[in-house]
Structure formats: structure tokens, C-alpha cells
Amino acid sequence: MSTPTTLQRSPIYWIPSTWFAMGLPFVALATASSIMYKNLGVSDSQIAFWTSLIMLPWTIKPLWGPFLEMFKTKKFFVYTTQIFTGCLFGLVALTLKADHFFSLSIAVLSIIAFSGATHDTAADGVYLNELTPKLQAQYVGWQGAFYNVAKVLSGGALVYLAGEMEKKYGIANAWMTVMFIYGVIMIVLGLYNMKMLPSGGKAAEVHSFKEGINTLQDVIITFFQKKNIWYSLCFIVFYRFAEGQAIKITPLFFKAARSEGGLGLTTSQIGVLYGVFGAMAFVAGSITAGYFVSNKGLNRKTLMMLCAFFNVPFLAYAFLAITQPESVYIIGSAVAIEYFGYGFGFVGLILFIMQNIAPGKYKMAHYAFGSGLMNLGFMIPSMISGFVSDYLGYSAFFIWVLIATIPAFLITWLVPLKQAPDNELESQTLEV
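Above: the chain's sequence. Below: its structure in C-alpha cell form.
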């Protein structure tokens, strides 16, 4: 746990900037790149498969987590990966006019994914090591809020900008500019966090590659020795099963022509939907949920409520697919409903990992395992979503998404919960 000195600076100085930097590359790869490739003429199935596959580093990130302990501090890896990621976005921009732009840009985005996953592991370590469990619950809403401010900027404002620039300068030039903007933002965040971020401490001293391997083995063994671990893993994976499918296809559905079952929106209109309607709703949902859970605690009743908020709003997209309304306000209202529920409900998954998976000898590493598997629950359904959508059509696909929420409710009802008192959690030390 952090020393009094590190707590003198309020977490509000570094949590927003760090989680904004965490969300920006993830959303750029998962969502904004889908719209970019759609406009550049790549098929839905190719987009869904490859932009999902490149997310793999966020699933396997625990495999190199212990080796980060061999050098420097967690803070060092946070700001260096932010700057490195910024440079890579600039490289993505340069690939977009190449003959084989799709394969080249996907390759660079894959490297960004490894950098981003490393950043997230280090940032989570800072958070867990600097804050008490009470503060973790209090600020988890701010985590989600600024993670999704990045999501809104990426899928909203920058997509809108790309759409407007496409009209004047062409698709490739527009997205080159947007990728350069991503790069500049990440570099600026890295320079800011170089000064503002607390160190996060060193969990353990690892002096050799062999020692790192031995530590990794111990991390894995002790992870799977946790009580009720298989119930917990099923919860982590299935909580996002429906979301992984819906979120990947939704922007493609918005963009597709009405004759194809889509809504026929322009790139700029999609940017407005995410940047205005989605932004306000998600921030409100995230912050509200953080304070709600910090007061109520994570028990069976609150977890079921969070699960319902997370999954039920996919009804809004089914409604849009079936009715194909033309009013941007109706479409925006549906987006706002889904984003508020997403922001509110996602807090339940984060706190579950913090309180039921992470506590113990290897808090940071086990949290990384949990969040990595959380991404797996998103990645696998996302990879197949394009094929399912092509086969079923948009209307039937979003009805299928509603059916796919059932496993989340079942496992939320069945998963055992563990709540350790604050004084017990505060006494635990981080060794990885």
C-alpha cells in the first residue's frame, strides 16, 4: 500500500489522464478502425475478424507482467508506453496510402495492442498499490468515466472529424490526419503522466529471466488455486458475451445502407451519436455506478442490478434494427440508453475482479489475469460477430444478441462472492 507521501496528491490528478490513455488506443483499435476500414472498402467479416484478433495482447498480458518488475517502476512503463503508442499511431497514418494498406496498418495496430496491454498492466498496478479498497471503489467510476471519455473522443469526435474531412480531402487523407491526432494526444499524455503519476512502488525485485519465469509459474499456480476460481472465470467471460458481439457490429450497422438493413448514417452522424449522446450517458452511468457501489457494496443484489444495466439496454439496438427509424434523436436516444447502461454495469465487472480475483499474494498480476480474461470474453464473440451478422442480417443479429445475454444473468446469480474487510485488504502487500 502506498505511503502517506504518495497520497498527498489526490488521485484525481492522475486517474483521469491514465485511464483516458488506457481507453484511447483500445477504442481506436476496437471501434474507430472498424469505421475507417469500412469506409476504405474492407468487408464486414474481415473487419470484425482482424480488428478483434489484434486485441489478443489485452488477453495474454499477464504472461509478461512479472518481467516488468525487473526494471524501473510501474510509473515508468505507464508513461513510456504512452509515448511509444503515440509514435506508432503516426506510423499507422503513413501506411494508409500504401498498396497493401490493410495488412500493413493491421500489423502496426498489433504492435500498438502490445504496447497498450503493457501500459494497462502497469497502470492497474499503480491503482491497486496506491489506493485503499474504499478509494478503489470510490474512484472506479472515474476510471470508467475517463476511459469512456476516450472512447467517445475516439468513436465520436475524431470519427466526426474524419467524416467531415473525407468530404473535402478524401478517405485516406482524412484518416491519416486522425491517426496523427491520436499520436499527438498519446505523446502529450505520456509527458503529463511522467510528472503527475505516483510510482506505484516495486512489488518485487526480480533480477534474472529465470527468476521471472519462476515468478510467472507461481503467479499462474496460485491464481488457479483461488477458491471458486472456475465460477469466477465463467463470470468474467460470460458477462461480456453479448456486448462483444453488439459493440463490434453496431457502427457497421449504423453505416450500412438502409437497403442492406442498416441505418444509412454518414461517418459524421455516427461521430455525433457517440460524441454527444454516448458521451454524456456513459460518463453519467460510470460515475453514478462508482458511488452507488461504494455505498452499497458488491453483494448479490447490487451485482444482479449491474448485470441488468449492462445487458438489457441492447434492446435499444434491436429496436433500431427492426424499425430503422430516420430520426437522429430516436437513434441518439437508443445510443444514450445503451451507453448509460454500459457505463453503469461495467463497474460491476471491474469491482468483481478487484475484490474476488486480485486479493492475495500477487494482487497486480492476478488482476491482470482477470482483466485479460475479461478481454477474452469480449474478443472471441467479437471475432465471430461479423460472420453471424452476415448470415442472419442486422435485425435477426440483434435479437440473437438479446438471447446471448442469458448466460450473463445465470452466472451472475450463481457466482460466489467474497468480501474481505478493508483492514484485511489494506494489510496485503503486492509482490508482483
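The first helix runs from residue 15 to 39.
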